[in-house]
Write a structure and sequence with these properties.
363 residues; Rossmann fold; seven-stranded mixed β-sheet; 10 helices; binds S-adenosylmethionine
């Protein structure tokens, strides 16, 4: 099968699957899976989903880009997607699952979330196969797996990967999967910001985001504002509190992030977009786009996605519109910003972070 990454990358060392995914499929084939119902979590580029497409398999998709990747890979291999087999992580599998599959995510909380998600639909004699690269092992994985299953068996290493085989489903532990932290906004409101597992910066506000918010000024005539890569929506919420008449839009690739932000904002005058591309959110043009853009994807560091988003922002700003963005200094985004915008200046910087303001048009 020919499996590629979406979004594509120039970095030849980044692959569309790992030995852990191959190991999962090897273990599955030992279980005579034909006729069984399978649920797959965190299959980033659709490697496992494509291989199991002919089976009764469900793909649980958090990232919109993950859905696109699966679609493209199926198409490229002459396979058809059954849309009923694509589920978001807040929609339960509509039938009993015999075999659960989890490519273990970087976030331990998200691993727990997927274990709970699968356990809820798993048949009593069901099995869960969890794959990971050995270098990402943490003893916490075993502790959490044991909260949900009586029998946790760790395989031998194969090509620097391992699998956990989980059997004997326990009664669901009484664990709160949504976290929250209290945050005092600059205009004085104190709010508990809520978020689902795995959403960026779960225990407190990110330092970069805090730096951005300390320096953010929205001008009187800036009525349509986008929080790009919005996570739990803290930036959009700050704007909403200080400038209540602003129409705020939020866009994030992660479904769990978008659904978290829905809990943190007033929904009137707010628009939530589950998307990885501004080209997909319709015909809207913005006065201001604000962002703490992504550069970590699971265990990978990759700034190509952000640079692509910068190009898209330039196409979505009204003439004279502004793009206000924070980044770690070492990423050196200035050259890319200068390529896409007419004027780019540094608004503030500290030891670690830098704030850029870019404008479209000669204002
Ligand atoms: C650095 S976090 C910022 C989150 C939030 N704005 C904050 O400051 O706490 C980056 C976010 O980008 C999202 N993301 C990754 N790729 C994306 C893409 N192509 N389009 C939109 N969001 C993306 C991630 O899901 C994550 O929520």
């Amino acid at each position: 099968m020919n499996i590629t990454r979406y979004p594509p990358t120039q970095n030849q060392s980044l692959r569309a699957w790992s030995a852990a995914d191959e190991y999962i499929l090897n273990k599955l084939s030992e279980m005579e899976p034909s006729g069984k119902t399978v649920a797959i979590c965190n299959d980033r580029f659709g490697y496992i989903g494509c291989h199991l497409n002919e089976m009764n398999s469900y793909s649980i998709v958090d990232y919109k880009s993950q859905e696109t990747s699966l679609r493209l890979n199926l198409q490229n291999n002459g396979l058809k997607l059954n849309p009923e087999r694509l589920l978001n992580p807040l929609t339960p599998v509509p039938e009993k699952v015999d075999i659960g599959i989890i490519h273990i995510p970087k976030s331990i909380d998200l691993f727990r979330f997927y274990l709970q998600y699968i356990s809820r639909s798993l048949a009593d004699d069901g099995v869960v196969i969890c794959g990971f690269m050995t270098r990402h092992f943490s003893p916490k994985l075993l502790t959490i797996a044991e909260e949900y299953f009586e029998d946790v068996e760790q395989s031998l290493a194969w090509k620097k990967s391992r699998v956990l085989l989980l059997k004997g489903k326990r009664a669901e532990p009484d664990t709160e999967l949504m976290t929250s932290f209290s945050y005092t906004f600059r205009e004085g409101t104190v709010q508990d910001l809520k978020q689902y597992a795995g959403v960026f910066s779960s225990a407190n506000i990110d330092y970069g985001t805090q730096f951005l918010l300390e320096n953010l000024v929205v001008h009187k005539d800036e009525n349509k504002v986008l929080d790009l890569a919005s996570g739990n929506g803290v930036i959009a919420r700050a704007i909403q509190l200080e400038y209540p008449h602003t129409e705020v839009h939020l866009m994030d690739d992660s479904y769990l992030a978008v659904m978290s932000s829905r809990l943190n904002l007033e929904t009137e005058n707010s628009h939530f977009h589950w998307s990885d591309s501004l080209d997909e959110i319709g015909d809207v043009q913005f006065d201001l786009v604000v962002s703490n853009p992504p550069f970590h994807f699971e265990h990978e560091v990759n700034s190509e996605v952000s640079i692509d988003l910068f190009r898209e922002v330039a196409g979505k700003l009204k003439p004279g519109g502004r793009f206000f963005c924070v980044a770690n200094k070492h990423l050196g985004y200035i050259a890319s910003l200068k390529k896409f915008f007419t004027n780019t200046s540094i608004v503030a910087e500290n030891k670690k972070f830098i704030l850029y303001e870019s404008r479209k048009g000669g204002v």
